[in-house]
Write a structure and sequence with these properties.
Blueprint (H helix, E strand, L loop, with lengths): L2 H11 L17 H15 L14 H8 L6
């Protein structure tokens, strides 16, 4: 997936309302956003995680590392 498309979809799916979202952006994962991220990872990348596994995720960069940097162009 292209990085621009990834950032747009992540912004929309997590309802971040951040038009300047970048790899270096911080993310506050509320309980609703955590559930949305679980669904996003499953739907877009076929990665199945439990909400508890996302506790340390606080930036876009950490999400990309979870997915695998090779999957984001």
């Amino acid at each position: 997936m292209k990085k621009e498309d990834f950032l747009t979809q992540l912004n929309d799916d997590l309802d971040l309302d951040n038009p300047n979202l970048s790899v270096n952006s911080s993310i506050n994962l509320t309980s609703l956003r955590t559930l949305s991220l679980v669904a996003f990872l499953d739907e877009k990348f076929k990665i199945r995680v439990k909400a508890a596994e996302l506790k340390g995720i606080d930036s876009v960069d950490k999400i990309i590392r979870l997915i695998g940097e090779d999957k984001i162009e």
